[in-house]
Structure formats: structure tokens, C-alpha cells
Amino acid sequence: MDTHRQVLDRLRSSFKSGVTIPEQFRRTQLSKLTAMIKENEELILKALHKDLAKPKFEAVLSELDLVSNELHCATTNLSSWMKPEYVSKNLATRLDDCFIRREPLGVVLIIGPWNYPLQLLMVPLIGAIAAGNCVIIKPSEVSAATDSLIAELIPKYLSQDCYAVVRGGAEETTALLQNRFDHIFYTGSQTVARSIMQAALVHLTPVTLELGGKCPCFIYGRVNMEAAARRLVWAKFFNAGQSCVAPDYVLCTKATLDSLLPAVCQVLEEFYSKEPQTSPDFSRIVSPKHWSRLMELLKRSSSKVVVGGQGKEEDKYIGGLHGPMCGHSGSPTVVVDVAEDDALMQEEIFGPILPFITMESLEEGIEFVNRREKALALYVFSDESSVVNTVMENTSSGGFCSNDGILHMTLPRASGWGSYHGHWGFETFSHRRACMLRGWAMERLNGLRYPPYQENKLSWLRWTASPKPSCSLM
Ligand code: NAD
């Protein structure tokens, strides 16, 4: 097996040869990646099921189709993305060619997490290939089946001179990071992100960090409780709560809680039956270690469990036997009476535990959220547009969605929906090179800038360079 250095040397010399620059090369690699996804759909679904018991329905929507759509978007738009972007000129540069050229960064490293182990590696990879880079991808060792499948498939489909998979956990990744990359793209936890930044610092490597956090969900005012319960439960328990944009906790009044809870219990039963542990539609916690972390959080919490709360380690399942409110066996976990300093509020939950925090007023909830770190996503459920607007205008978060959860991530990607989807992926992995192609014309006008400096020359220069609504001289 090649060492990290050998892999990097191979990729760097390919990059230097310019092989990734032509549009046709990038197109070929993207179509090979498309074939890889299409031809191995069953194997991918099997691996995702092995890692997370991911239901086919969720895997198709959030992994396979999402990646295929990104590939389609990149291949459809590649020519226009690669075109030079002409910029506005002033009088002094009017005869020049002034444009921004997108150039690849070089050899880039993409490190992925385990919760969407295909999507969160492939989407940045698509951007990096489209932008003409050579790429090393490092899947998460935690989602072992998908990790191993990706390592097997990528060299079969993509150019081995330009793309490679390096496998391993913290130790191997730390060793890999000692090498110089031209960009590091990392998705994962905030703790590890600090180590990534430290490694990048040594080589002054630019980084993109896609991290986690706690995503609040306000439920306030007049609300269609049944619909709210369905959308909330779906968004929270999709992938067993292991989504970076899953609603982490709910903020509502006591009155809302009283009418919402029965609806939540009913929906849980509708979705996952009275025995969620037997439901094929409810994922599992990725590993015993992550299962223990969640169970430990529950143990340390002083909140009141109203649904679930018990786990089966051998099945990496968190749900429960009899929750006092719903009285059915095996369901994801809902807790109430959660204090601000409760264990569940100290870190991102990232699992199927949904805390409800009661507030007296919307303002109190907004203050609560604003006291904490900025959220990746923020949700508000209400029939009243004034409530939605009040929350939107008085808080800040990576993304915002009213009356639903997670769904905003499926929008056609514009800036802000994760700055690496679609065109933004291409931009993240491109260097924007400002280019000015000048001729020899207008030397008299150019002469204004040469010494000996004079006040009247300066006035002319300032006038030529200043913004003008319309210029009648040219
Ligand atoms: P993680 O940080 O533990 O691991 C992510 C990657 O880093 C893995 O490939 C792992 O092998 C590697 N790694 C682990 N320890 C390392 C170390 N010491 N040095 C170098 N590399 C190391 O994250 P995770 O548990 O896989 O993912 C969960 C986190 O990711 C959550 O916080 C979640 O919110 C976040 N996340 C964010 C997004 C987003 O788009 N913002 C998407 C998914 C997940």
C-alpha cells in the first residue's frame, strides 16, 4: 500500500502536468462518478443499512438522489461555471480585458463524517472535480461499511493519478494532515475542527469547516398541532436524529406543550408503530460509543422522560419501553422540564432525543437562543406570520425555515444552503484569479500616473477611476 507521501506525490505531479484542467477531463470524471453511483446503488444501500440501519427511503432521498442531482447540476453547468467572469471597468481600463478566471486550487483534502457518509463526501468531491483539482478523500472510519465501499469503488471509476481515498481514524488523519494541501474541506464536530485548523496553520492552508451545533425549534402562537407534530417528528427522527440540521430542542409555552405532546406521541406511533425497535423506518445509532454517549446524556439529565428513554446496546437502539405519557413500547425519546443548564443542553444531541423547554413568551425564547452559540439552522412553527418574522428578524443562524425542518436543505442550492453545493462547490474549490490583459493604447492617458507627480494629474486620475453612472466619453 502506498504511503501518504507517495499518494500525495502522485497526485501533485498529475496536477502539475495540467491533466485536470481541460473541461473534457472534468466531464469524464463526473460522468464516471455518476456511473459509480448508478451501478452500485444496491451495494451503497446495503452499506448504509449496515452502518446506520438507514431505511432505503431515507438513503435514496438524502444520499443517492442528492448526490445524483449534484452530479447532474455540475455536468449541466460546468461550461458556464468555467467561463471567465468579465468585470466592470473604469475609464482608464476601458480598453483592457478585465475578468476573473476560476483556476483549480491544487491537491485538496476532503474529510467526511459518518452520519451521511456518502453524501457528505461526494458533494464536496463533485465541486472539487468540477473545479479541476486533484483530491484525497478521507471517509469516516465510524461508518465502516460505507468507508470500505467508497475505498473500493473510487479507484475503479476515477483516475487513480488524480483522486485517492485514504482510510483511517484520528491517528491516520492526524498523520495525513502533516502534509501540505492546497485546501482542506472538513465536515464534522467542532472539537476535531480545532485539530484540523491547527494542522492547517502549519502550512497556512485555507480550510472550509462544516460543523455542528444545537438547532432550536420555536413553536408559538396559533399552530396546526397535528401538522406541526408530524413535521417536527419527521425532521427530528430522520436518520435517528443524526443530522446536523435536525431540530435539537423545542421552545414553546406550557399551553403549547400540553396540546402538542399528545400529537407528538400519536405521530411517533403512526410513523414507527407501537414497537419502533422493530420498525424498518427507524435508523440506529452508528456505534456503541455514540450510543453510550447518548445514554450517558440521558442519565445525567434532570429532565422528565415522557416517551422512550431506554436503550438496547446490542441493537444500538435508543427508544424505550413504556413512556409514561404515550404508554406504548419502543419509541424515540421525548423529554420535558429541561433546564437551561441541563446536560442535554450542553452539547449537540445528535441522536433521537427531543427535549422540550418551556418559555413564558416569545421574547424569552429569543433571548434564550441569542445567549447561546449561533445555530446551524433555526426553525419556527406558527400560523402567525408576525411570529415567524419576529423570530427571523431577531435571531441569527446558518439557515432558517418556518413550519418545517431539514427541508430547506433540499432547495436548489444558493449561497447559504451549505456553501459547497452546486455552483458554490465549484467556487469553494476554485481560486478566483483577477486578470487584466492590457495593450499599448492610450499611453498619454497612462502617462498621468508617472512622476513627476502633479496635482492636476492626480485630479484627472481620480476622475477617470471614480464610478460614473454613464460615461459619454466612451
Ligand atoms: P468527527 O469530527 O468525530 O469526525 C469527522 C472526521 O474527522 C472523520 O473522518 C474522522 O475520522 C476524523 N477525525 C476524528 N478525530 C480526528 C482527529 N483527532 N484529527 C483529525 N481527524 C479526526 O465528526 P462525526 O462524529 O463524524 O460527525 C458528527 C459531527 O459532524 C456533528 O457535530 C455534526 O453536526 C457535524 N456535521 C456537520 C454537517 C454540516 O454540514 N455542517 C454535516 C454533517 C455532520
TrEMBL record:
Highest rank taxon of the organism: Eukaryota
Please state what the protein is called: Aldehyde dehydrogenase family 3 member B1
